[in-house]
Amino acid sequence: MESSRKRRVHGMLKLYYGMNEEGKAAEQAKSLDPCDINGPHFDHEVFLNKLRRECSLAELMDQETCMVKQIRSLDSDMQTLVYENYNKFISATDTIRKMKNDFKKMEDEMDGLSANMAAITDFSASISGTLQDQHAQITKLSGVHTLLRKLQFLFELPARLNKCLELQAFAQAVRSHRRARCVLQQYSHLPSFKGIQDDCHAIMDKLAQELRQKFRDGGSSAKDLSECVELLLQLDEPAEELCDKFLSHARSRLELELQALEAEITPCPSASAVKDPPARRLPSAAAAGSPTDNLPKTGATPSPTSNTDILEFIDRGCNEFVSSLCLVITSYQELFITHAQTGELASKNIPQMASAKLNAFVDDLAARYFSLVERRIQEEKGVGDNSLLVRALDRFHRRLQAVTKLLPGSAVAHRGTEIVMRAATERVKQYLSALQSFYMDSLTDVRQALATPRLAGASGPGGGAHFGGAAASGRDAPTSLPELLSSLSASILNQIKSVLASVHLFTAKDITFSNKPYFKGEFCSQGVRESLVVNFIKFVCQSSRQFCDNAGDKGGSTPPALLLLLSRLCLDYETSTITYILTLTDEQFLVQHHSPVTPVTTLCAEAREAAQKLLNHYVKVQGLIISQMLRKSVETRDWVNTIEPRNVRAVMKRVVEDTTSIDVQVGLLYEEGVRKAHSSDSSKRTFSVYSSSRQQARYAASYTPSAPMDTNLLSNIHKLFSERIDIFSSVEFNKVSVITGIIKISLKTFLECVRLRTFGRFGLQQIQVDCHYLQMYLWRFVSDENLVHFLLDEIVGSSAHRCLDPAPMEQSVIEVICERG
Amino acid sequence: VVNHWKMEDDAPVIYGLEFQARALTAQTAETDAIRFLVGTQSLKFDNQIHIIDFDDENNIINKNVLLHRAGEIWHIGASPADKAVLTTCYNKTSDSRVVSCAAVWRMPSDWETGSNESPDDSAHNPQTLELLCHLDDGAHSNAACVLWEPMGDGKRVISLADNHALLWDLQESSTQATVSSSATLEGKGQLKFTSGKWSPHHNCSQLATANDTAIRGWDLRSMSQIYCIENAHGQLVRDLDFNPNRQYYLASCGDDCKVKFWDVRNVQEPVKTLEEHSHWVWSVRYNHSHDQLVLTASSDSRLILSNMVSISSEPFGHLVDDEELSEGEENHHEDKGKEPLQDSVVSTFEEHEDSVYAAEWSSADPWLFASLSYDGRLVINRVPRALKYRILL
To answer: Which positions make up the signal peptide (chain A) (predicted)?
Structure first.
């Protein structure tokens, strides 16, 4: 507020003093108005005229008061400004005056100082002139002294060297000799020096001999050895030979360690493989009752073939072999490469030669170490605790980094990674086979659970099974089949999850090799996703389908309930489980697919196909069971000489009973499905005994009628228009379709059997009664009741045809008999 | 009639019998005319043998009817040597008892002339078959089928009755039949032969029979079993046929809806299995000349012609160029242009509306076959022309 007022005041002052020439253009528009009291073009006449014209008296009065007020405040502002500026001017004048005085004083002092300095320079020059001669003399004397000391050193050298030799102070001896060597060489034409040189040579030869001896004795410590080598190198020993010797010493020590490692591995891995099957059985979650925590249990049992676990083994390998190897590399490099690069040895290409030798040496030993490690890894067959193996591999890999760091060009790290990769791939394979055997075991358990209650009592094909084999009878435990399915499904899923979790360890962040491109890409997509998950799903589908193939003929080996259950399992896989598992995998492993992977849709299609096949097979098997009953009942009876029907035959009741229990069984796992609307009197329908007569041909042109038909054409019209019935056809995934399939098979069998027999009057009547009974109970199960009507019509019609004395029974009598049951 | 459609197949020719029928055979001894014999099943009327002649040129059927008063016919077999001689298995009802019998018959010598004069007459005033002899030794009844010695002189037949296989010698112009040897099926329960086939190989010394789910081979010289395929089919075995060119190959079909091909030297597993039918398969027949063509008839009302190249005596087929294939007809389900040829369904024939119980190749024209459904409909069909040329060229 205050500042804005000030700025306005400043602006007006500026305006007053004509300082705003440069801002003119910008303000032009605003200030052109002659009525703007603050503008440069203000015209008081115009302004006043305007006011007088536009404003009332009161407004004019107000305007005036306002104006007076503004003028007053402007006046006081101006006064304040003038006063402030005056004060500043006064103080500036004072300051300038004071400065003038001070400078004058300072000038005088500076003059005094320069005079004194000149005097000091004079004195100093005279002093140094007097001391010149003495200084030269002293320098000369000290030079002579040094020379004498050197000579003395030379003369004393042999003795000193001997002394050193005695004291084993080889390092000092060599150092001394090196100092003297050049001088001796230079003055060797003088006899005295020559003598000294020869003495020295002799002594040094002896020394070298001793050093070599020491070097050859492997017992000396690594540090001693290095010292030896260093000294020998300084004594101009051939470096190549030294390298070889050094390495062979190191090799013998490292090989000892390798042998110790090898002793840890069982001598004959192939024999152990036989004892320990590749896929160790996982504990079955279904049997254990709890689908969780089943992996760690097996993990606890160690591989029986070796005494030490793999982590311990790798630890030993790392601590002994790898660290020794590192030590060797370090000292070798120190001696032959780093040193050589600086000294005069560099010229002789020694570093190159030395590092080539080193690389060969390391590669050779590492290869042997790797083969041991691989052998040990191969013994890890148990799929239990994966973390141990992963930790071992991690340690193995991590420790190799040290070697790489020391020896950047070496392939060791690369080879090590390859071993880890192979181990991981192998592991994935083992997990797959473990999963597979787990699945098969689970199925065996389900099979047992299905079989148990049946022995206990209920023997019908519809008998469900109570999980866990409690005292429940088959039919009284309607929830058992879904329970079995969900527990099977859950245990498989859990197993997959725990396997995924185990495999996931390979890609954990704190594992050194997890950031290798292989583990980021190929391992996740090809290894885990394809080899493990996708293959397992395929296995589930395929093994399920095998139940249809091998058990197909007799139908007895696989319980129908199992077929039904597997079919539902596969269908569930198709609808959700596969997507879930693959999404889970992709999420856990962040799979980036570089190579093409099996799409979810392919797997789903496969699962659906398996489900379809299983369900079809279920229908076939169940249909067969009922068919057999019907067939036996038709074949074994003498239909010509049978008595007048009084009852529905027991086999028909059995058929209805079995159909009902199959209906219940299927209803446990599958939805109802759609059926066509029933007519109001579905159960009460009469059959024409002549209904199945032959119809006219569709191929009228080439049809050659031979004689009037002896059968009733009229009643056959609906057959002409009805669809051809596929008896063993594909069923849909719902209860009605399944039951319809089974009933179709059964009734068609009935029809074909009837056509093979000859009937008497009562035989025909019995068939009429039986068919009416079936009609009463079966229509409700099927999708289209007309189908049941049609087939039953055919049966009654065919038996009428095959009847020697076709006198059908009264419909009312049939109804009475059937209602009596 | 000039055929204008070069590659189009002729429409099937259909003939309707007034009675239900199950028995069909080609007239084996007749190699010039295309002729089939059909036996009817009627409990009320006199049963008939229909002699169906097919005029290939005009696509017309000529028929003659002979009466078979003895009873309803379940099986029929034509003599390989004498055109006029045939056997039937029939049911005879007497005193509320149904008995299955077998007999050898001769057609009256002038049946053919009668039909030519007035075709309508023959239907109303048919001649009767002349009985040559009963195949009845007094001990065994319930004949399931009678088999003629393949390519024989018409002097030897085998009848399968209950659990016995009886080898008969026909003497005195077939008027007298004596059992020369017999074999009996031993085992638990009531065993019963359902069907059989006399092998044309090994000097006609072998027989194959079916009972329940098993197939057995017999040596006729010693009348002893030589092989047995237990559980050849999941359910009842309905029919058998020998590959005419490969002596160890045998086809079978049954109630499990399957058709299986066996190598009898190794009976553990079938060589090949077909699952094309949706109900019981009642008949399986190899083509006499081109054994890759196999006909199967089923109670799903369908007749299926399969091309089993991989197990035929002509496994490599013939090279076919695309041009020829592109003219293939609709029914042709084969994978086109594939070499070597693969086993496939050639055609599914849907002309029947009831269970098809029999199918037979013509003995005169290797590309023609007849099928018979229960409602008395006989359908004569041909191998699709494209396939025929493919096999021939």
So the answer is: none
The CB-side HSE value for B200 (13 A sphere, CA atoms) comes to 14
Question: Which residues, including other chains, have CB under 8 Å from residue A81's CB and lie 6 or more apart?
Answer: A9, A13
What per-residue confidence (pLDDT) applies to A50? Answer: 84
CA distances, A87 to each of A75, A79, A81 (Å): 19, 13, 10
* More confident position, A436 or B138: A436
Q: Is there a contact between A755 and B374 if contact means CB atoms under 8 Å apart?
A: yes
Task: Give the containing element (helix H, strand E) for B177.
Answer: strand B176-184
HSE at residue A698, side-chain half, CA atoms within 13 A, is: 10
Query: pTM value?
Result: 0.68
- Counting DSSP H helices and E strands in chain A, the numbers are 29, 1
Tokens 């080898």 -> residue: B167
Tell me whether A721 touches chain B (CB under 8 Å): no
Q: How far is CA A739 from the centre of its chain?
A: 44
The pLDDT mean for chain A works out to 75
Residue B62 main-chain phi, psi, to 5 deg: -115, 140
Residue in the block written with tokens 């009848």: B159
User: What is the strand order of the sheet B97-106 is part of?
Assistant: B72-78, B85-94, B97-106, B130-134
Alpha helices, H only, A636-734: 650-669, 717-721
Structure confidence by residue, pLDDT tens digits, B141-173: 788 899 999 888 888 999 998 888 999 998 877
d(CA A229, CA A332): 9
Strand partners, B86: B78, B105
**Are the Cβ atoms of B123 and A707 closer than 8 angstroms?**
yes
- On whether any CB of chain A is under 8 Å from the CB of B393, the answer is no
CB B251 within 8 A of CB B243: yes
Q: Are B263 and B249 in contact (CB under 8 A)?
A: yes
- At A452, phi and psi to the nearest 5? -55, -55
Cα gap B64→B52, rounded to integer Å:
7
What would the two tokens of residue A444 be? 């065996």
CB contact under 8 A, B65 and A758: no
Residue A274, judged by CB atoms within 10 A of its CB (0-12, 13-18, 19+), counts as exposed
B77, pLDDT greater than 90: yes
Q: Which residues have a Cβ under 8 Å from the Cβ of A38 and sit 6 or more positions away? A: A12, A15
Cβ–Cβ below 8 Å for A699 and B354: no
Residues 162-201 of B with CB under 8 A from A: none
- Burial of residue A302, with CB atoms counted within 10 A of its CB: 0-12 exposed, 13-18 middle, 19 or more buried: middle
CB B42 within 8 A of CB B19: yes
Buried residues in A700-714 as b, exposed as e (16+ CB within 10 A)? eebebebeebebeee
Distance between alpha carbon B11 and the CA centroid of its chain, in Å?
22
- DSSP 8-state secondary structure symbol assigned to residue B12: P
What's the distance, CA A235 to chain centroid? 59
Closest CA to B353 of A711, A710, A717: A717
Preceding peptide of B340 cis, ω within 30°:
yes
Do A651 and A630 meet the contact criterion of CB atoms below 8 Å apart? Answer: yes
Instruction: Give the model confidence (pLDDT) of A123-172 as tens digits.
Output: 888 888 888 778 888 989 999 999 888 888 878 877 877 887 777 777 77
Q: How many CA atoms lie within 13 A of A523 on its CB side?
A: 28
**B351–A699: do the CB atoms touch at under 8 Å?**
yes
Give the residues across from B47 on adjacent strands: B68
Q: CA A582, CA B340: separation in Å to the nearest integer?
A: 40
The residues, ordered by sequence, that sit 6+ positions from A259 with a Cβ below 8 Å of its Cβ are: none
Measured in angstroms, the CA of A515 and the nearest CA of chain B are apart by: 49
Q: How many CB atoms are closer than 10 A to CB A273?
A: 14
Cβ distance of B43 and A804 shorter than 8 Å: yes
Question: Which of A640, A720, A724 is closest, CB to CB, to B301?
Answer: A724
